[in-house]
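I am writing to request your help with a piece of structural work I have in hand. I set the record out below, with my sincere thanks for your time.
___
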Amino acid sequence: MSKQSIKNVTPFLVLLAVVIGALFVAPGASFDPNSVIDEATKAPKYTYNSGDIAWMLVSCAFVFLMTPALAFFYGGMVARKNVLSTMIKSTVAAGIVSVLWVVVQFSLCFGKSIGGFIGDPRTFFMFKNVMNGEPWSLATTIPLPLFSFFQLMFAIITPGLVVGAVAERIRFSSYSLFIVLFAVLVYSPLAHMAWHPDGYMFKMGVLDFAGGTVVHISAGMAALAGAIVLKRRRNVIAGGPIPPANIPYVLIGTGLLWFGWFGFNAGSAVGSGSLAVYAFATTNTAAAAAGLSWMFLDVFRGKKPSVLGFCIGAVVGLVAITPAAGFVGVPQALFIGFIAAIVSNVVAEFLKSHTKLDDPLDVFACHGLGGMTGMLLTGVFGDKNVNSLVVEGQFLIQLKGMLISATYSFVVAFIIFKLINLILPLRVTSEEEDEGLDASQHDENYVQGTLLVKTESGLQEKANY
């Protein structure tokens, strides 16, 4: 069997082995909260709250919607010949991570702690002890499987965020392998350290309400690593314009992301109480301020107000408020959104004009730096009246947590990209890049009837017919 044949058959055989193995795992009965009695009070130790359960079910759906929303957001900004390839790289994470989560990733994130760094993979292997397990210690009013699937939605979207930095030049097979390695080696340790009661950063007192470190900094730093390893696109080197394929897609994606982010942040209260309302309010406020901030800064520089500007700015505001949503006041959310958009806007412009870094959709500037800005401002504006977890010296604690997560994410992601390149070619060939990844990687086309003509710099879209 040839090397190519082995590469083609391996993913299917791995999935086949997983599903066959699953047949030998006995399903667990649903956990009865009345079955565990508190010895001191002789009353049930746990009481499920139907309102909390309903809200968390809805929040799961909200956060899942963010993955196809991200696909629209990213897909609308790349060249027409790469729309589908960009969209599927974000969306396929829903398949890969969902399977991985049931098999081992939930254990790695929330299993019995190993040194405060990672969870024991045996804890919930193949979802053992989840359906019939006691509630999570920080979410005792909802069933454990509901908590697990809410957390799954975060794990799905995180590798999808990295797509924007490696778009238009990375192989689909290589990126699929990246999703697996990133989920196990980057996301899981950070989730455990930040959100597990025995996690290293959790015990340090680092505050991350809904994923500033775990989701956005990790994705932003991985995006930076990927852009460095893959180098610039041929079109960028040639200096040709790359107009966005479909700006209405970006607008649709932004609206759906904003909508889903209410579940992302307010759902992270893990209940339907006042803290969820606080997170809901700060989320909307920061997004609004950031969208206006980005757009008005462009106008201040002499540009015209643009759809892309407002949309990108709003997403940066959502990113920045994510770690702070349940720790700061609503007025402070205005400032967080405003300043985060300025930071991301200025850095994105600088990287494009003064460096050779090719991050097509500014993932590092928007998610990486947006997450860092939000993490640090959580330390500045965190208020004990909003959440009692805020302590004196919170800024320095946040700074340490930010440095740990940023350094770890970048180093490990860089190694992952280099490792993949030894196993599979990471980047498509020059001919495949010129043809477009929709056709070369998937044998599909976003726009039917696009005429490709040969030029000195390669294949170029000329017209529709």
Summary: The radius of gyration is 22 Å. The mean pLDDT is 93. The first helix runs from residue 3 to 22.
